[in-house]
Write a structure and sequence with these properties.
single chain; alpha/beta; seven-stranded parallel β-sheet; three-stranded mixed β-sheet; 10 helices; globular
């Protein structure tokens, strides 16, 4: 039966959308967030406990008070460039925080966790441009991706030793906003293409910098698999149900299986905004492959998950409406 679910990082972008999905499925999400990047307005469907997941006493009190049936684990630092400059911060928080969380779960007798992982655990595609499935070699190229891969390994070890039921969801490029307009993407600093392009169109940011226009792609710009945040949220609820129903642990890609280039995203923003997006060409960034696209058939087979908001105009349109009302 649905009960409380502890959501670490539930005041963030994907975590807050997942809290809404949990509430829609009958659960009560309990958010634990240190609010470094989270927003109080994003916590609308259950209580907020402000604090760090490395705080054992805090976690013990949350588990004792709410007795969650499971944990959905989003809390992490996620800026690739920062992870290269300050890897200690990423290993201490992402990896160390996860171990603290898992130990608190053990003390409380909570044995189910869905983990927010990433396609960054794969690194460079072995076959450029080809969809990447879960069997693709994992060779992350930065400390952020390595921290997430370490956590996947830790979860598997805890499963073997302690019976932890776990699912790692490797998502590609999260994008869009709640279609009901209650939630959206608001990072500081912002590094994601869609909100940066929208900000350029609104005039709330400077011209968008397009990093590389000479890739071996149809229009020369990077191609990425943009998956709507609402679809990601729904996948987490399905993964929770899968584990609660005795389903096997593992890891799954979350993506649409199709890619859109930077220029195609800019076109979608221009259609939504009814105005041009100011942009300027810049040099390629180190480590940026030309194309990253998911092979996500396994999520459909295991969870029955099929993304529903897959058209780039639909994805961008939800984001535009949210940002435009806040400009």
């Amino acid at each position: 039966m649905p009960g409380h679910v502890l959501v670490t990082g539930g005041a963030g972008y994907i975590g807050s959308h997942t809290c809404k999905a949990l509430a829609g499925a009958g659960y009560t999400p309990v958010t634990v967030d240190n609010m470094v990047y989270g927003h109080p307005w994003a916590v609308q469907w259950g209580p907020l406990v402000e604090g760090d997941i490395r705080d054992a006493d805090l976690l013990d009190s949350v588990f004792a008070l709410f007795r969650p049936v499971a944990v959905l684990h989003f809390a992490a630092f996620a800026y690739v460039g920062e992870s290269v400059a300050d890897p200690g911060k990423y290993y201490a928080t992402n990896v160390g925080g996860t171990i603290a969380l898992l130990e608190a779960m053990r003390r409380a007798g909570c044995a189910t966790v869905v983990f927010s992982s990433t396609c960054a655990t794969y690194g460079e595609p072995v076959t450029p441009g080809a969809p990447m499935d879960e069997a693709h070699p994992q060779a992350p190229v930065n400390p952020y991706g390595r921290s997430k891969l370490m956590i996947e390994t830790i979860l598997a070890d805890y499963g073997a030793a302690y019976g932890l039921r776990h699912m790692s969801l490797r998502y590609f490029n999260a994008a869009g906003a709640d279609p009901d307009g209650e939630l959206g993407e608001d990072h500081d600093p912002e590094t994601h293409l869609v909100p940066l392009a929208i900000g350029a169109a609104l005039g709330t940011r400077g011209p968008l910098r397009v990093f590389g226009t000479d890739y071996p792609t149809p229009d020369g710009t990077c191609v990425r698999d943009y998956v709507h945040v609402t679809d990601l949220a729904r996948a987490h609820v399905l993964a929770l149900g899968h584990l609660e129903g005795g389903g096997a642990p593992g890891m799954l890609n979350l993506g649409t299986g199709r890619g859109n280039s930077v220029r195609e995203v800019l076109g979608a923003v221009e259609r939504a905004a009814g105005r041009p997006v100011p942009w300027e060409a810049a040099a390629r960034r180190a480590g940026d492959p030309g194309a990253l696209v998911a092979a996500a058939g396994r999520a459909r087979a295991v969870l029955g998950w099929t993304p529903q908001l897959t058209d780039i105009d639909t994805i961008v349109g939800t984001a535009w409406r949210w940002h435009a009302t806040r400009a």
